[in-house]
Amino acid sequence: MTPGIDPAAPVVSARGVRKSFTTKDGAVVEAVRGIDVEVRRGEAFGFLGPNGAGKSSTMRMVGAVSPVSAGELRILGLDPAVDGPRIRARLGVCPQEDTLDNELNVRDNLVIYARYFGLSRAVARERADELLEFANLTDKARAKVEELSGGMKRRLTIARSLVNRPEVLLLDEPTTGLDPQARHVLWDQLFRLKQSGVTLVLTTHYMDEAEQLCDRLVVMDKGLIAAEGAPLDLIRTHSSREVAELRFAPGQQDAALPGVEAAVAGLRARVEALPDRALVYADDGEAVLGAVHDAGVRPAATLVRRASLEDVFLRLTGRTLVD
Amino acid sequence: MSTEARTPPSAALGAGVALARQADYWLTVARRTWRATAVSSFLAPLFYVVALGVVLGGFIEADPDQLEGASTYLAFLAPGLVAGHAMQLAVGETTYPVLGMFKWNRVYDAMLATPLTPTDVARAHLTFVVARVALACAVYDVVLAPFGVYESWWGPILALGAQTLTGAMFATLVYGYSCRITSEAAFGVLFRLGVFPLFLFSGAFFPIENLGTVGAWVARLTPLWQGVSLSRMCCLDTLDAPTALANLAVLLAITALGWRWAVTGLEQRVAR
Fold it and tell me: Sorted alphabetically, which PANTHER family does this protein's record hold (chain B) (predicted)?
């Protein structure tokens, strides 16, 4: 065993970790304001939050690229301030924006990246072909990166992050900007990786992605952790089972709300008014719609759905995830 | 914590190992660009030497004493021109291409997610730039040979060392500058207030004594003059040991400082 490497150590352990930096005009930005996180080996762990919550700053610290401003951070049991290269040798990083080399062909992007990890040319080529297969890009091996679709580029970036056979894969907003079909292909690949024992640490502002992929997650807001747990537990703790959505004709919601509140008063329901719709949290959504209808309130459209992480986020922060 | 983060990572790779791991990347870049480099390093000197040295220089009749020992204006001009060219090439290679590594193609983001450190990445990039400057200056020096501007066969070889060192000095300085800016607009300032005045007034085109006593001393303090002076003394076989050693010492000292400036620039940029 390599000295200094503890196999039982959590993959990520953060205590009171902060990140602040000074911008060009002298303002101090506190991107992360003291977070405690522990990621266990083999799990899929998510950071859920809106843009600007501090997720990407956290990922750059976990990736042993950006030093922490305060607090204690250990990655694979090692201190990134001392053992950065040793940590990065065991991580795979899939950044938010693709950092592929547009001037190289698809396969060379993998081969040259593999060389940074010290793999011989022969091994690098072998690994590149394996990963092209994994990413369904074998027939694009000689294509220029520019010719790839957004989904293909993402798959290539993920393939590249696997050249060193990492123990931990960091994914920053892995499916942002992809169409639904490409997202499902990617989710499937990530699930396969997780099955093969790779620890996944990802950020997302998509609640469905977090629910699909994460065993556990933290909800981040304004540089702090607002809640932590398994997706279903978080929903159970912070939301009702169902949500009834009521949409009113433009300008009529404010007038209708008191009627809605009165109608659902007996149903242990909670009413949340958003700019474009009213949400009624209750265990039985259909019962809410019935009560509202009986009270003579007529929304333009209604919908009953299962509560999601979006509702958890709204409850915890008073804001929606995607503005 | 910031002091802790500044201590060199104990697990860092050796310099040679890190360079070898990036060799394939830079060789690919070289393969992509060598033709353009070769053509421009061949044509640029030819145009300059013909226009300034032969045609314009034909009007200049001066005593060799006034031309720092050169028998013709062309022989005076050539070594300084190559040193100035080394500076321009080094600056060109460390402005947009370096900023692009952060801003446009984000190749540095990818490299720094691997075991490579900012020091490794800066060293490999600057090695590539210096190699390219050396190659371009070598072509330049060869193109100049038929014009009879060298006093000895070994002179231009020594001069190539001085020219390459001049390029290395500017490469490190401008690399550090490019790491510290956010917009390419800052390059305009660098070119207008740095590169052009240096190119014109560092003794490449006329003896710095022509600038007057004060002007000559200001010129002697500029980094480019050190390279011009050393390059010229080598080509004209007029090496004066104290001056040559002083030039060499200044070039080496600024390059050493420039290297620290470049590495800290990249480290700070990445630490955000």
Answer: NODULATION PROTEIN J (PTHR43229:SF2)
State the best of A116, A121, A146, A162 to mutate against chain B, taking most chain B CBs within 10 Å. Answer: A116
ipTM over 0.95: no
How close A306 comes to chain B (CA, Å)?
39
One domain for residues A246 and A223: no
Closest residue, chain B, to A69 (C-alpha): B1
CA distance B233 to A295: 100
DSSP for residue A23: -
The reply to whether A150 and A53 lie within a common domain is: yes
| Contact across the interface for A83 and B28, Cβ inside 8 Å | no
* Distance of residue A228 Cα from the nearest chain B Cα, in angstroms: 26
Residue A271 and residue A177 share a domain? no
Pairing relation of β-strands A301-306 and A224-229? unpaired
Instruction: Write out the two tokens for B201.
Output: 């007034």
Helix (H) or strand (E) holding A169: strand A168-172
Lowest mean pLDDT among A213-227, B46-60, B107-121: B46-60
A290: CATH: 3.30.70.100
| Tens digit of each residue's pLDDT (9 = 90 or more) over B184-205 | 999 999 999 999 999 999 999 9
